Amino acid sequence: MTTTAATKGPVWDWAAGHGPVTGALSATTGALAIASTGAATHMPPTWALAIGTAGAIGHTVTSLRDRLAARTITMRAASWLLGAGWTTWAMATGPFSWAALGSLATLGVGIGAAARSTLLYEEARELEAIAAAERQVSRELSAERRAIAAEWVDRVQRVCGGITLRVLAVEQWPTGTGFTIDAELPAGGVTYERIAQYAPQLSADARLPHGCTATASQGINQGRVLIDVTTVNVLAEEIGYPTDYSPLSIHTGLPWGVRTDGKEVRVYLREQCALIVGPTGSGKTNFVHDVLAGFARAEDILTWVIDLNAGSAGLPWVRPALAPQGEGEAVRPGIDWLASSYEEAMLMLETAVAVGKHRKVAYQDLMAKANTDLLPVSKRIPQVMIVIDEGAEILTSNDPKVRKLAAKILEIIRQFRAMGIRTVLTALGATGSVLGNLMIRREAKARVCLTGGEVEGMDLSKVFPGSRGLKVTQAPYKGSGFMGTPESAAGLFKSWRILPQQIADIVHATSALHPRLDDISAKAAGPSYARRWDTNRTAWMHTGTPAEDGATETPTASSGPRGGGLNLSAHRAEQPPAAPDADALAAQFMAQIDAQFGTTHEPDTPAESGSEKPGGLNLSAFRNEQSGSTSGPDWLPDAVAAIRAAGAEGMKPSAIADVVGLSRQAVRAGLKAAAERGELVYRDRGPHSVYVHPDHA
Questions:
Q1: Coil, strand or helix: which one is 308?
Q2: What is the CATH number of domain 264-530?
């Protein structure tokens, strides 16, 4: 049985301390009670005086310990003594006479007034102490800031050709890694660029540590300048990718790393493309995974990846979905589509063009209702981000087939900004031949250049035209470089380190966040998109053998029944048939190639005497060494494929060793033998020697 009682009247807080009124009331009623009891029981009056004296002494001791003011100590001691004196007198003469009661009331009013006065005094005294401490800290900070301001005014005047600044503020960074100087430029048309071009000289004059810079940027108006001075090198240490996998949006920006002041730098890609430049060994692949992690966390982005180098950039984001899952644990891939072959890449780009064109017509009413000329991107109508590894090299290739891919990429960049289809291209070097396309420079306004200390082929003026004071030597560490966006001027930054296990964690944590292609776009995409995870299109992900050009059958509306493929059946009603095992797929794949291209005889089936050597692909180079093949070690095909993908610039032996997971000494003999057989071309450039594929020699 539950009884609910309504509480009426004031609620007493018995744990609260006494104020001036309740304290005086408690003291007077207590004195009256003691005097009445003492008079009735004939208690000796001196006892009350002794107790009051002890109370006065005790409060005096505690007040001194709490460092209270002298007037507060005096008031407390006097209250005890006056109360004890009245009690002693009242016990002797009677507490209920008009004289006794009147004097007690007067005593209570006096105690209350004195307590109120001392309380206000103590509060004022405490506030003054706090203010004094703050003034002391402010004086110390002001002294430090004044010293910094005077030092940098003198430095700029001395280094930058007599420019005299008037420092308005010095802000210490919360991370403790540097400070920002806000200064007013002198009259006469001096701009912040005049100071920005002296950034290396200012850094050297300030004796900043390696990896620290003094960079100038525009202030709140054209007559002001901001000078960011980094005093602690945050580029040298490895920084792990944050473990916060909370949802993101294309509209609120995507985190891509940290600046030298420790602040997160965000990129806004709703209307712009991105360009990522980084030579081998600079941490470019790791940074691409940082980008894909941000896309995976976004609720309004679908990520498509093209990597003609065996799909290595996207496979870590698909593998968790390929692994066997327990009941009720279906995981969607971290990316929405992965192309590792020319045919699949062309299929993806053609689908993107079809989606973009259809959106232009189908969403006219929606854009008119929203009064905008941009498609309102949301979780219901997601943006498609196409990440193309070494896409800049594709745009400059002379190969006729690759040029068809380049034409589609440029069409997407040029036409579908408003329809929410944008690209992220990567490049191996910052040279005029790679970045010579005007479309890249005009549309890819979010630019990243990972240097890793590499100087050759790293012309920062090609990536960040107009930015002065940027030097490759400022970012000699792996994963460090420069980033510039329309919202943030080009400057140093550090990318996060992300490992395969964390990628799997992100895929699992964000599986429920991924949007689906809207129905209108999915209709335009057709079966090419709907069957992207079918077995005949994803078998290479299981067997580790990427499909050769032309081996991927373009699906049509009349295609046969859907294969097993990637099990996304958690989002469908029916269960797909089980996929065939890897050995059967490999055998079927080899049989199809032998039938189509007429490959060489099996090693144990000698050709007839005098017969001509069959044409087509010589796939015997990839068979078991027991067959008598002398094509080289098992890792050589992977190395040849990587060197071919590197283009005309080739790859250093150390980079090839990183690709195959061996030491440089272990791969040296195999590469030399391959060059002697004509499978590779060796270009001797001393410490910069490279191996080049014959197609690009």
A1: coil
A2: 3.40.50.300
CB 102 within 8 A of CB 110: no
Profile the chain (697 residues) by mean pLDDT over runs of 10 residues.
48 57 73 76 77 77 78 78 79 77 78 78 81 69 82 93 89 87 90 89 90 86 92 87 94 92 90 91 93 96 94 92 72 94 94 96 95 95 95 83 91 94 89 72 89 76 80 85 89 92 95 94 94 89 56 38 45 42 51 47 39 40 38 82 84 84 81 85 79 83
Give the neighbor-by-neighbor strand order of the sheet with 224-230.
166-172, 178-184, 224-230, 214-218
**Distance (Å, whole) CA 200 – CA 261:** 18
Strand 264-267 relative to strand 274-277, pairing: unpaired
Residue 562: per-residue pLDDT: 40
pLDDT at 364: 95
| Alpha-carbon span 444 to 463, nearest angstrom | 10
Cite the DSSP H helix spans in 378-485. Answer: 391-395, 400-415, 438-443, 460-463
* 268 three-class SS: coil
Q: Tell me which DSSP letter residue 249 carries.
A: B
The enclosing H or E element of 459 equals none
* Predicted TM-score of the model (pTM): 0.60
Predicted pLDDT at 3: 45
8 Å CB contact between 164 and 186: yes
Q: Which residues pair with 293 in a beta bridge?
A: none
Helices 20-41 and 70-93 cross at an angle (nearest 10°) of: 30
Residue 336 DSSP code: S
- Report in angstroms the alpha-carbon separations of 508 from 334, 451, 571: 8, 32, 16
| Closest C-alpha among 469, 470, 471, 467 to residue 455 | 471
**Kind and range of the H or E element at 655?**
helix 653-660
Cα distances from 353 to residues 250, 443, 657, 686, in angstroms, run 21, 17, 38, 46
State the DSSP code for 203: H
The rounded distance, in Å, linking the Cα atoms of 345 and 509 is 28
Spatial separation of the C-alpha atoms in residues 305 and 26, rounded to whole Å: 79
Give the pLDDT score at 566: 57
Residue 350, classified by CB atoms within 10 Å of its CB into exposed (0-12), middle (13-18) or buried (19+), is middle
Please state, in angstroms and as integers, the Cα–Cα distance from residue 37 to each residue in 31, 80, 268, 283, 299, following that order.
Answer: 10, 19, 82, 88, 78
Convert 157-189 to b/e letters by CB count within 10 Å (16 or more is b): eebbeebebebeebeebeeebbbebbbebeeee
What is each CA distance from 440 to 396, 410, 472, in whole angstroms?
11, 9, 22
β-strand pairing of 274-277 with 421-427: parallel
Please state which architecture CATH assigns to domain 632-696.
Orthogonal Bundle (1.10)
Instruction: Domain 160-230: state its class.
Output: alpha beta
Report the amino acid identity of residue 13: D
Amino acid at position 23, single letter: G
Instruction: List the end-to-end C-alpha distance of the chain, in Å, as a whole number.
Output: 92
- Residue 181, beta-bridge partner list: 170, 227
Question: What's residue 584's pLDDT?
Answer: 53
Smallest CA-to-CA distance from 89 within 49, 119, 126, 56 is with: 49
Q: What is the pLDDT of residue 578?
A: 44
Q: Domains of the chain: which residue ranges?
A: 20-130, 160-230, 264-530, 632-696
Q: Please, are residues 237 and 387 in contact by the beta-carbon 8 Å criterion?
A: no
Rounded-to-integer distance, Cα 443 and Cα 445, Å: 6
Distance CA 261, CA 215 (A): 12
Q: For residue 19, what pLDDT is reported?
A: 67
Contact in structure between 297 and 502 (CB atoms under 8 Å)? no
